[in-house]
Amino acid sequence: MSTISKTILMGSILSALVSAAPSFAQDHGHNSDGEKLWSQADQYYDADEMDAARASVLHHNGDDHFYMFSLDRAEVQFKDGEEVGVWDGYYWYGGDVNKLFISTEGEYAFESDEFEEAEVQVLWSRAVSPFFDIQSGIRYDFEPDGLAHAVLGFQGLAPYWFELNGATYLSEEGDLTGDLEGEYELFLTQRLILQPRAELQFSAQDIPDRDIGSGFTNLQAGLRLRYEFEREFAPYVGVEYHSALGDTANMIEAAGGSKDDTVWVIGVRAWF
Asked: Which CATH number fits domain 66-271: 1.10.8.60, 2.40.160.40, 1.10.1040.50, 2.40.50.140?
């Protein structure tokens, strides 16, 4: 797939998703067709008074601004005598409809004393339904290769309280990749929580510099058991299975590596 084709594909997806946004996600004072809203009160009050009233209603019923910082994973993974530090967190600021969303994740190898992966994403997140947001923006990989990507994705809460998020990434070199992640929280008690989590990655083409083949590339699936001393602070232990898939697995095995691993984890989850 050429770079132009990938760009057209991402643009088509974004256009379709934006056009599907319901009317509640529109700017206040206008409906989904861009026409100015009208009510019986417009017959008795002038336009300035009605605009002020609508702005006041929006401010007190959905346009307040909040912020949150969450460190979903700050853990050490143990596998084959190696120890790897992993982090995954985000910060957002905004209201019910629009948010600034900043996330970061990566890995640090203690044995080699270097970052194996490190990325930051800066996204605009817009609600398109009561439970799902569309996100677009940029991602920059500080490690391993210092590449920038355009990002188009989603996140939200599926039926039965499954948390889902996924994204596609178009790099400055024209490579199209993506991932899909899901997790669920099973409350064993009010403080003891078992969290299944899975992540699937894919690539539209071979990327030899990263030992990535086309198709589905990697799968991670695991369980984490945490205890919430406070809602904002919870240490956890767990186990996770990592497996390379398809052409990616073939590349790794051809280089003398192992295509799958089982890792044990210990970490902490926090938010405020």
From this structure: 2.40.160.40
